[in-house]
Amino acid sequence: MRLWKIFALALAAIMLSSQLAVAGPTYDRVMNAGVVRVGMMTDSIPGAFFNDKNEWVGFDVDIAEEVAKRLGVDIERVQATNRTRITFVQQGRIDMSVANMTHTRERDRVIDFSITYFFDGQKILAPVGQYTSHEDFVGKRIATMQGTTSEINIKNLLKELGDPNYERNVISFQRESEAFQALKMGSVAGWSTDSTILLGYAAQEPGKWELVGDFISEEPYGIGLPQDDSAWRDAINFALQDMWKDGTYMEIYNKWYGPDTPYYFPMTDKIEVWP
Amino acid sequence: MLKTLASKNWVQNTILIAIIMALFYYWAFIFEFGYKFDWSVLYTVNPTYGENLGFYLIYGLKVTLQITLISSVLALALGTFFGLGRLSTFKPFYWVSTAYVEFFRNTPLLVQLFFWYFAMPHALPLEMRHWMFGLNYEFWCATIGLAIYTGSFMAEVIRAGIQSIDRGLLEASYSSGLSYFQIMRKIILPLAFRAIIPPLGSEFLNNMKNSSLAMVVGVADLTWQSQQIESLTFRGFEATTAATIIYLSLSLSMSGILNNVNARLRRTTYHQRDILSYGVNILSWPLLKIYLFIKRILWVFFPKKQAGLKLTPTQAILKQILSTTWTALVLMSKMLFAAVFVYGIYLGAKGLYSFNWQVILDNIGTLLVWRFPEGRSDDVFMGLGGLSFSILMAVIAISISFFIGLIVGLGRMSKNNIFRLPCMMYIEFIRGNPLIIVIFWVYFFIPVFFNTFISVFWSATIALTIFTGAYIAEIVRGGIQNIPKGQFEAAMSTGLGYYRTMRHIILPQALKQMIPAIVGQFIAIFKDTSLAFVIGVMELTYVAQILNNRLMIYPFEIYTTIAVLYFVCCYAMSIVAARLERRLTPDKIRLRM
Which of A4, B395, B548, B584 shows its CA 20 to 30 Å from the CA of A260? Predict the structure, then answer.
């Protein structure tokens, strides 16, 4: 009985001491602690995923590590999903979320965003040679993920193209991997989300998949930051712009999206740089 | 003076109300929320999306009800079939039924749903797959998967109910010349139903709560819709509260009906009547009248003939022919079943043979411990994950929830309203909601109410603990109620106080009786750890998803492996539970001699 009590008390103590948040301006807190907590995805290839050695790698991971390095602090990596990436920032569980998150106005009402650090657009992935344009998907079922901008965009697209059952034809999964599994199995005709994610998954099985049609929307990615904390936002923005200026950004970009990689995605835009 | 005052009901109620008011006051006026409430998202038209998101919840409720109703009917059919199979003397049928019951009871529903949705279609030919996908596949996959899961629990309930009937009755009815079907219909089933209906009812309730898992295969049920509102507006607190209230009212009304049915089954005379039974009477009145009317008409048109005991020769021949065909039919169906059984084993063996065992071998380490002990400094427990993580969560949850359950269970039985009412509310509140909703509570509510956050591991473990606490409280209550009242009276009259009576007399006996039920609850929590995957905890199911995501082409191998891992752990524990039960109830063993 006594052992149990000690065990329970110790457990409670550990939980309280390790998990209590210190509220306050993020910049000072990060600098004092020497650690920045970054939320990243686990299912987005090549944004942030687990490789065959179970290491967490990807474009977002490298960007986050570079930002932390420039701030002169260590990085604590936190797993986030489409569902948790915004809630974590709201709750103060993480200091920034580098989680291929599109900067939208609805999201900007609850958290803040850095400048755009990546330019993506939404497309539809389908088996090679079966579909040629968006119109071909009318009346077909399309997979996407719950809680993403892709979900809203694809519903709007199907509605515009005149699909009366657009609500039922869009199947929203919890994760990217589940959507891809559904596509592979054939239970959906296509999978629609940001094109780099689609490329990442398609590259796992070269020659079997293709992107159909034009971009459905533009998806500017921003780093999610706590609301109303401009000192912290400035620090992140300056770090991103410095990375762009001295070429580190393009190095990381080419490592993951360059012509020699399976995920080739040409850089078409330019990060906003303030003089 | 104080003691007599404290035993008055009105004093207790006043204190309770005062405490609630104080808490309400604290959170309403003094506490600074880091979160701004906006309940209007639930009933006004959202300007960004141009839709009233409250309707989403109603659509979700409709889907939840559909899934619940259809899967309940299917599960009852499956449960009856395999429950009888568990009692059958025809061996292949018995084996199939046992395998069905044990396998589906001892693996998590979530893994089963993943298997049905993501792995099973790979085994089918392409045309059949496409035909299936055209039929609202997500919905049917979730519904049938749920029915198969619930059916395995119902089979056990039905088997236990039929077995609880005295053997002597069976022998008596056989010796009075009734046939098997007559015995079943007239003697055994009517009696068995009395034993079966109460636990069957709680299976229906569980089935409704489990329908919340349909969200993982993309079915837009109530939980899914509440999370949809969350992801559209980031109002997790409001959306989850709304879903909670809907689930709670659904399960409270269901358990109200069930309690009424149970009370009717127990009742022999008609003097106790409450509001619920009046409600049922009023609702069932027209049905009853229609039934009586039809029966009467049938009686008018087809009066029962008095048949003679002696058969004419034609009748005798007819009877002979009928009975021979019947025997032949039974034999044929048995052979057919055996053939299907052998074919099933052949298919299974073929499937196992075609498995890529190397993949399983390469990744079993990852499934068991993830990347322990080579984790980075920012990983929890040195990169632990997978099966050992699930076990860790289950162990922490059961050990803490045992104490919660003990205290709440005792509080629930207290005569003092100050303890009884909050404990009762806790139990009903938790038991009225699906675990997935409880996980979302902890995840959304703790940050709002305490201005702090906890890691996903701890929020999932706390959710499991709170959830299990309510169930253990009910086990504790049952255990204590089983102790004869004389024991309390004897202890009290020897001058022991409440604490010492409980500590030295009642609890030691009651706890001993509760152990099998608690082990059963432990199995349930262990299976439920798989739900923590929705908020991204590195437990077995999530690790399997990550692996599947990377390997891409071996879903069958991976889902089967994790199903087997879960099964081995749960089955081992359920054997332990059965052993304990036999050892702790010695009188049952004596009966067998």
Answer: B548
